[in-house]
Amino acid sequence: MDQGVVEEWLSEFKTLPESAISSYAASLKEKASLVPAIYKVIRENYSDLLEPVCHQLFEFYRSGDPRLQRFTLQFLPELVWSYLSVTAGRDPHCSGCIEALLLGIYNLEIVDKDGQSKVLSFTVPSLSKPSVYHEPSTIGSMALTEGALANHGLSRVVYSGPHLQRETFTAQNRFEVLTFLLLCYNASLSYMSSSSLQSLCQLSSRICICGYPRQQIRRYKGINTRMSVSAEFLVQLITGIHYALCNGESDMGSKALDDVLYRAQLELYPEVLLVGNAIKSSLHGGALKSNKEGSRSIQVEITPTSSRISRNAVTSLSIRGHRWKRHESLENSIDSPESGPSGPIPEISVTGVSGERLANGEVLRNRTEGEALGGSEAGADSRAEVRRQKSVRRLMEDGVSPAGRVPY
To answer: 160: part of which helix (H) or strand (E)?
Structure first.
């Protein structure tokens, strides 16, 4: 039955005019039995339908229709595993059509519509901006220091490319090509079906545990040959696993993440350990979605929409307030009787308004008594006397003898 479904799918696209490709791409979702049948063909390396299926999938991708391209991309994890398992089994003749399909997709993706090499750009995450791994509001006070203000709005951009055309797989370029293909797959994760996410988790677990003692714990009875992997390839796997974890594949995703971290510890890959442990830590605080039919998204904490400014933030208002507070503190220090200098002060007498000579300190005592009585006039006079004392002191420091000053 599965073979008949695949054969019908192969024949109907060949006779399809270009004007009907768009409607045909929309009707592929209605063929529920087609995707499992294609998976079965890919898993059977010696199937007679494998070569025409790979050719048809490449034609889908070359058509340029986004829906047909995503239809091909959903089989990418299974195609990668089939290729790697055959390569590890030292039987490259069985993977010729799969290898050609993978290389064809790669060569199409590294160039634009005009045939020019693409240069991809990536913005490095910043702690001041939210990401899928952290939320600035949970870090603490994000005070706007002088250095932060200088770097505000600046972001680091990393560029990838241009990539070279590849005609064959070699030991040197194998994981470079596969990593780029997984990057294209992760760009369309929100369109992938649950069967594709399951295939990605299986690929991640198998490639990381084959040939290691953990294979016996997982009870996987496939090939037992160790496969070499690169850190970049594992990071791309973790990206897809993270999405699967939060979109209905929590069990398989958790096992796959543990297996990737297990392999990263053996290989001492710091990049993989950093990303994997960050995802694992972020999942401890929140429950994973178990509804496979619900909306597909990664659950993160939502940044509050209300503007919140730290009390330590440096703003123009805070600077003005700081100046006002400093001015008030100076006046209070002058007004308070305890704010005088700790050392001895020479007694200076000045002539008051009424002609009386007041010794130093008497004005302050009179002002304190006047304020205790609630007399506003006494308080005003006392403040005037304080100002006179300050002016006299400045004149004495300058060596000028003030008028009305009695010799000491």
So the answer is: strand 157-160
